[in-house]
Amino acid sequence: MKLAMQALIAVVGLITLGNTSVGEEFPVPPDTERAVATPMAPSDVIAKTKLPPGFRLSLVAAEPDVRNPIAMTFDERGRLWVAENFSWAGGGFGGFKADVRDRILIFEDADGDGTFEKRTVFWDQASKLTSIEVGDGGIWAICLPQLLFIPDKDGDDVPDGAPVVVLDGFVDGSSISHTPANGLKWGPDGWLYGRHGILGTSLVGKPGASDSQRFAINTGVWRYHPTREVAEPVMHGMTNSWGFDFDSHGEMFVINTVIGHLWQVIPSAHTERMFGIDINPHSYQLIKQVADHVHWDEGEGWSDVRKGVTDSTSEAGGGHAHIGLMIYQGDNWPDEYRDRIYTLNLHGRRLNTDLLKRDGAGYVATHGADFCFIEDPWYRGMELITGPDGSVFIADWSDTGECHDHDGVHYGSGRIYKLSYGDQQTLAAFDLKDKASAELVSLLAHRNTWWARQSRRLLTQRTATKAESTAIHHLLKERLRETSDPIARIRLLETIATTGAADEAWWISALATEDEYQRAAVLKFFVDLTTQAGKAPSSEALQTLENLAAKDPSGIVQLHLASSLQRLPVDLRWRIAERLAVRPEFAKDGRLPLMVWYGIEPAVPRDLAKAIALAEKSEMPLLTELIVRRVTQEIEREPTAVDRMLQLATAGKCSHGESVIRGIALGLSGWQKVAAPAHWGEAAKKFGQSSDEEIRTLVQNLSVVFGDGRAMDEIRAIVTDKERPTDARRSALRSLLVSPPADYGSTLVALLDEPGMTVDALKGLTHYDDPTIPAKILQRAGKFDAIARTEMIQTLVSRTDSARALLDAVEAKSISASEISAFQARQIASLEDETLTRDLTRLWGDLRVSAAEKRTQIDAYRAKLSPDVLSRADLTAGRVLFQNTCASCHVLFGQGTLLGPDLTGSNRKNLDYLLENVIDPSASVGADFRTVLVAMDDGRVLNGVISQMNERTITLQSPNETVTIDRQEIEEMKTSQVSLMPEGQLQKLSDDETRDLIAYLMSSVQAPLPSE
Questions:
Q1: Which runs of consecutive H residues, i.e. helices, occur in 15-93?
Q2: Are 456 and 498 in contact (CB under 8 A)?
Q3: What is the per-residue pLDDT for 81?
Q4: What is the pLDDT of residues 867-888, one digit of tens each?
Q5: In whole angstroms, what is the distance from residue 62 CA to residue 64 CA?
Q6: How far out from the chain centre does Cα 271 lie?
Q7: Which of 223, 377, 498, 787 could crosslink 460 through cysteines, CB 3.0-4.6 Å?
Q8: Cα–chain center distance at 254
Q9: Could you give the CA distance from residue 25 to residue 14 in angstroms, rounded to a whole number?
């Protein structure tokens, strides 16, 4: 058997492993994959893969021995554990299925010859399984909506009993289309880390915990401590992540899709997200990605999954979708490949490489050469990890489509490949559990970090018994004294932390090291030890942090000090924040000022005086602006605080006076009227003469909010002065409309006759409930250009009376029904006037279509849009239709508005995917992308998604506008269960127009604009 197995592997054919322990009758679901082709044979995949000289790809396992591998990890014996997922049915088929089982496999090289010849089914009763990790006498598994621990203390590969529910509250996977909680991996601090996607919000905690004892997360990174039994969010933001790793210094990096691909995981950070509101409405600004590049040509089509990407996108990296992240720290690949970031690029079917280097207080990643180009169209890499032999193991889901899987799932295939360099020496069979503690301590210095990580985990586990802990602690500290290698010292420090080998005083002394990365590592462990829940930090701990903030020259240390603020009691954060804020070295860094802000924000409303003092002293202009913005939102409770900031800025006592103006303006965005602070006149005079046009405009806006009569008279005069430049007049009008004067309706009507002022005048007229206004607008409709006509309709659909006038104009044929967009039609329906809705249906069409009718429509369009029909499409006409129909919410080929998802990165070559999303857009919609209906007290009804929200205002985005609304003007607000994207988008298009639009959406290259 063994010789036959080796022969099969030698020719890299399919291998069938023996010694399967249980689960032979495991029910694999029938395939729902629509593609008639089949995956490429593994031997052909390997033969056709393009690799740098010296590298080789080999097969570890393939169907039927492994199928749908969604995650994998190694144990201390070098055995490969694989999570097989069969419960995923695809985003177009209801997400995860609760009645389908998943399982966990073990692949073992029992005799140490380098070949996995034994396959064991460890557990085949899993459901909605997304991730596994080994440790603490069992297996950890995410089985949505829970984190489970499956005990196997005797290590016989048979569960000791039923799984223990450790955490619950994760989104269960049936209500979102893809990328739920996933990604278990041990961190160097002894915590178990995981990830979370953007399409649902989880409320995570121990079973039975109340909501107040749980934490909310809707995209980002979280962690769980197995002995403290504590779970917490680590970082909020990104889109949908499926990969992370830790570098040699213990810094964490996470991969992402669509909006950028790489972030440094700074604990307590808030990073950019694809859509929705950050978990803290007062974050205000979010941290950008680490990478200085993207992996696609943003000006061209690049996500043609089945036909390959364009040359320019291939040169950039192959596409937006990244799965798995590994920082190579093994001992098999050449040195030039070490310490680089590697991720599996889905569309490009390759490994992307990013090169990390320090940048200010953090890092920047530059684009490295891609490699390992895989030709199999069915290749869908899911994970890549370094093994004990230093080679890299890659899990291949083996299917078509993307994570959405709108074309069904192929349950019959799956592969594990190994990417290695040169001729490898096989490892003798081993079991690190049999090693003495001294040997494990020695392995912490191994060049292949795999051995160090396994040794740290085992040493941590051994210190659970007091008998062994004293000896292990002694060994670790002794080896630290003897070792000068900086990486080995960091690994020793990590293990000292995870084993509890040091107290507070010891960690304070360890901060004296000259190496900044070791200081940063010590700082993280020191903070974790001294800021545990229910335990107040000592005065010595606080003084230590304060001294570091004042004196430590390292940006990475300052960054982690800023991160530590959120672990301290709120009222104890000021002194450390002040020490960081007055340091000029990284005042304009892209991360540090924001991390200081995230830490200090909860303290601001509790002590406005300290907040103002910090803004006054701050050397960081962004931090000053954000503090002022937050203080300003307390203006009704404490109006003198804003006046004090204006006084300091006007007198030049604040380093960044213009940041004060910017902060006040942003803090009052959407407010209608506020009593003017005493020093506003002086401030307006000084900053109204700023060389910065933005500051001058903000002063103008604030003058209106503050009811500055003299300033408002000047603004009114500018608006109507035809001798002034149109841009200046429009700017003045927009300022005036921040708080529309009650007597201004007639002026706005007059401005409709001036082409340069028409659009802004139409927007302003929405504020006036005057029954004569709709007729005056419609009388001028024939003179409006296309942009003004669109704005005209948006103005008319906001109120019942004006919507009535619009539909009357449609009936009279003076306005075409086709000019009313699907969104605007839904806006009319949301007015909830029975007569209006009936006439809308008669004149425009029915907005409410049953699920069965939608399926019929999808089938009908699929039949109409055959490949032959699509081949005859006019892509230029399709581009024009996209601009008129879709670009107000979506970006394609770098053009449009990113209110909804960027279509460039979607699975748009798949006709089923497109039709399902266009015809039934609400079938799968994230909670943060549902339409909110807002009824205003002046009679308007607005629709959109909330992009920002605080105690006083909300910012509502729609395809036509972004408007910040004072909550005091809202009569009622309710969230709909439907997507912002309305149904009926194709309803007003002819067959040729539908063909042109769909073909353009599916195209691989940008179409030319029509010739003039």
A1: 42-48
A2: yes
A3: 98
A4: 888 888 888 888 888 777 666 6
A5: 6
A6: 8
A7: 498
A8: 10
A9: 21
Contact assessment for residue 127 and residue 148, using Cβ atoms and an 8 Å cutoff:
no
What is each CA distance from 94 to 97, 98, 178, 328, in whole angstroms?
A: 7, 11, 10, 37
What average pLDDT does this structure show over 604-624?
Answer: 97
293-316 per-position pLDDT tens digit: 998 876 654 334 334 567 888 888
Residues 6+ apart with CB under 8 A from 781: 789, 792, 809, 814, 815
Reduce the DSSP state of residue 677 to 3 states and report it. coil
Torsion of CA 252, 256, 259, 264, to 10 degrees: 0
Bridge partners, residue 322, by sequence: 345
Please tell me the predicted confidence (pLDDT) of residue 120. Answer: 96
Return all residues near 29 (Cβ < 8 A) that are at least 6 apart. 86, 100, 409, 411
Q: What is the mean pLDDT of residues 722-747?
A: 91
Query: Which segment of 160-164, 283-287, 304-308, 534-538 scores lowest on mean pLDDT?
Result: 304-308
Kindly state the helix (H) or strand (E) to which residue 996 belongs, with its residue range: helix 991-1002
Q: Taking 50 as the threshold, does the pLDDT of residue 20 lie above it?
A: no
DSSP string, 208-219: T--GGGSEEESS
Nearest to 122 by CA among 86, 71, 155, 158: 158
Residues 6 or more apart from 78 whose CB is under 8 A from it?
109, 387, 388, 427, 429, 430
Backbone φ and ψ of 291, nearest 5°: -65, 145
pLDDT at 390 over 60: yes
DSSP classification of residue 708: -
- What percent of the chain is helix, strand and coil (3-state, nearest 5)? 35, 20, 45
Q: Using CA atoms, how far apart are residues 686 and 108, in angstroms rounded to an integer?
A: 75
Would you put residue 355 in left (φ > 0), alpha (ψ -120 to 50) or beta? beta
Read off the pTM: 0.84
Contacts of 157 (CB under 8 A, 6+ apart): 21, 106, 120, 122
pLDDT at 681: 94
Mean pLDDT of 765-774: 94
- Which residue type occupies 847? L
Partner residues linked to 970 by β-bridges: 936
Reference 625, options 662, 591, 653; nearest CA is 662
Question: Which ranges of 636-687 does DSSP label H, i.e. alpha helix?
Answer: 639-650, 657-667, 680-687
